[in-house]
Amino acid sequence: MNQAVRFHDQHVVEAQTSFRDAVIAGLSATPKSLSPKFFYDRRGSLLFESICQQPEYYLTRTEECILVDASDEIAALVGPDSLLVELGSGASRKIRLLLEAMRPSRYLGIDISRDFLLESTRRLAADYPWLEVHAAWADFSRRLALPDGIAGQRTVAFFPGSSIGNFEPPAAQAFLARLRQVLPDGSGVLIGVDLVKDRAVLEAAYNDAAGVTAAFNLNLLERLHRELGVEVEPENFDHLAYYNEAESRIEMHLVSRCRQTLRLEEGHFALEEGERLHTENSCKYSIAGFQALAKRAGYEPTAVWTDPRHLFSVHYLSIL
Which segments does the entry list as coiled coil (predicted)? Predict the structure, then answer.
């Protein structure tokens, strides 16, 4: 292992059992569903990085433009020599837009995909030799904890990509409240939040012409087969993504193309033709609506930046 990266294994020993149990519970439910966190094996992480490059997927490029324009203001809010914690670090592209302006003394990337996390943090350590780089392999949606010995300085948690939208609003509030308990007093959260907008723009972003999002969605079935031995034929499913206006969210589903049965060990899970397996929600907010949620979670909204078309927003939330 590259010693330039301090690796922290926070993945629970029961992770594989938990994955299996969650899949059984999700396939047994009515309606059937699986958590979007299970998208992110290595192939899923690579597919998501490809999604971010698709012309329809405005979220990534818009957030990156906002971060470039606001980096000096963000750095002034945070101050130098901080600990910068990135939740769901992925390829760590966006963090590079902040590092030079913020000049933190330490960086901690947290991700559920171990191999992808190590690759990205090793690149960061090589490209920024002045930065102390840490990597924590963890499912932060279940367990939030900073590694021993890393706290004790001003901390900023960076949660980009509107990943907060994968939580339903009550769960998003609960997640932010748990995060607040982990961070030291005087810390802050820099978070990307997708905004409510025209249905056509939203639906195009999750139905790219190249079919990358469809492949990302279907890879979940392939992962079930590879890792758990689920008997499933991904070609028997179609990708479906649409905007649920009443709930202010994009929903992603896998739709069964025929009557079929998925098998896992002794369990048999029947699907009718047209039956849906719900794989993701991506909630959209107004600026005022998200700030109200953040206040209920115990934060003080300090700053917000958006783009000229008001497609996306980046918020800085203070812990007082």
Answer: none
Spatial distance between the Cα atoms of 198 and 177, rounded to a whole number of angstroms: 30
Domains and CATH numbers, the chain: 19-54+202-283 (no CATH), 59-198+285-318 (3.40.50.150)
Q: Which pTM does this prediction carry?
A: 0.92
Map 207-261 to HEC letters: CCCCCHHHHHHHHHHHHHHHHHCCECCHHHEEEEEEEEHHHCEEEEEEEECCCEE
What is the b/e burial string over 229-253, where b = at least 16 CB atoms within 10 angstroms of the residue's CB? ebebeeebbebbbebeeeebbbbbb
| Region label for 162, one of left (φ > 0), alpha (ψ between -120 and 50) or beta (otherwise) | left
Per-residue pLDDT of the chain (320 residues; tens, 9 = 90+): 345 888 888 765 445 558 899 999 999 999 999 999 899 898 998 999 999 999 999 999 999 999 999 999 999 999 888 999 999 866 677 899 899 899 999 999 998 888 888 998 999 999 999 999 999 988 888 777 888 878 666 899 999 999 999 999 999 999 999 999 999 888 999 999 999 999 999 999 999 999 999 999 999 999 999 999 999 999 999 999 999 999 999 999 999 999 999 999 989 999 999 999 999 999 999 999 999 999 999 999 999 999 999 999 999 999 97
DSSP state of 80: S
Compute how many other C-beta atoms are within 10 angstroms of the C-beta atom of residue 39: 23
Q: Retrieve residue 245's tokens.
A: 């206006």
What is the number of residues in the chain? Answer: 320
CA 210 – CA 65 distance, rounded (Å): 24
Contacts of 17 (CB under 8 A, 6+ apart): none
